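Weekly puzzle thread! Below is a chain. First person to post its structure in token form gets bragging rights.
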Amino acid sequence: MAKVIAAITTSVDGYITGPDDGPGYGLGRGGERLHYWVMGGPWTYDGGHDFAMHGPDKEFYEELVAGLGAGIVGRGMYDAAGAWGGTNPFPGPLIVLTHRVEDQPAAASGFTFVSGLEEALAQATKAAGGLDVSIGGGADVIRQALAAGLVDELALSTAPVVLGAGKRLFDGFEHDIDLEILKAVSSPFATHVRYAVKK
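Winning reply:
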């Protein structure tokens, strides 16, 4: 049965970015440490980087995306990532939740702009064709989806770093949700836990 999986990386103190995130510094100052697991080790914004996952990190990622048919992200993540160079890098179409749908890029980019979470989920579910739907960043999109009871699974990667500032995943979130640990794996760069969201 197809699931909606919210997936994101945080610091130990719950930040999904360091301070001053935005185009060119998508994870904020110091936030690139959150994605050492994605890049296969230390990297910098200015020094370039490769997606060189390996070991437990790669196994976690490949298992997570194996059943994905489409995804949803917020406009903030889309902009901060520089629209991934203009081409969707993820499996299946990517729905971008935004109030500025008039900025819709060309269809060949793999991005579709929509203005509401329920509409985004409906389009992503249809596009996924029976496969899972991923909800990525930012934090606000994940909080909205959890609050609305739309998430079946939360995949949380925790990097071994305390950022002290930036954007928190659960800032202002006031809902009480029970989770069940489905799987946990660790590497030197992150501990990845997949939780079922109890409904």
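Puzzle host: Confirmed. Bonus trivia for everyone else. The chain has one domain: 4-197.
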